[in-house]
Here is the input.
Amino acid sequence: MTLRRAMHLRRGCLVVLEGLDRSGKSTQLRRLGGLDWNAPAPVFTHMPSGLTGLTENIYQLTEREPITSALARQLLHMACHAENIAALADARQHGGVVLDRWWWSTVAYGWHGGHLADLGVSESAFFGMIDAIWSSQPADLIFLFTTPYAHDDLNREDVSRGYHQLAAQHASVTVEVPPSAQDETTDFLLSRLRDSGLLQ
Here is the structure.
């Protein structure tokens, strides 16, 4: 790993780690969070558990309890997103934010993987809710992780296809992360953040 001095993430920026389950996002969030950051240090968090006790509890419930409805799962996730928007906006006022999962997961795993249209869910209503929640918090850079390092039943082809569609729609702010060792991946992320002007 490259030797690093204390760094500064640009105030107000939102950096997102998105992609398939078990592809290294949470590992990289922990690794980035453990680096030497100048004050104010960035906020590192996960969505939908987020920055509040309520949403952490809701997320843990969705992980523990069986949920038979794909729509119910996504509505619970979106409720957590909505509850965290004010806290994320406040965090961006004080420093940068690095987020493990964004609304893309709702689209990839919910709309594409959950086949919500087949359940009668209106596309305009579903995406309208997402836009109502997230339109005030655009991302400056999205790192897309597409290579799982362990099997996960949820990583189906339709989910992967959904992510690639989103990446194509937001190509100007999306960087696909190549499969690599953890140290090399961290260096890759930091290099791209510097190239984008978000990291000093």
About this structure: The chain has one domain: 14-195. The chain has a mean pLDDT of 93. The first helix runs from residue 25 to 33. The beta strands are 14-19, 43-46, 97-100, 141-145, 174-177.
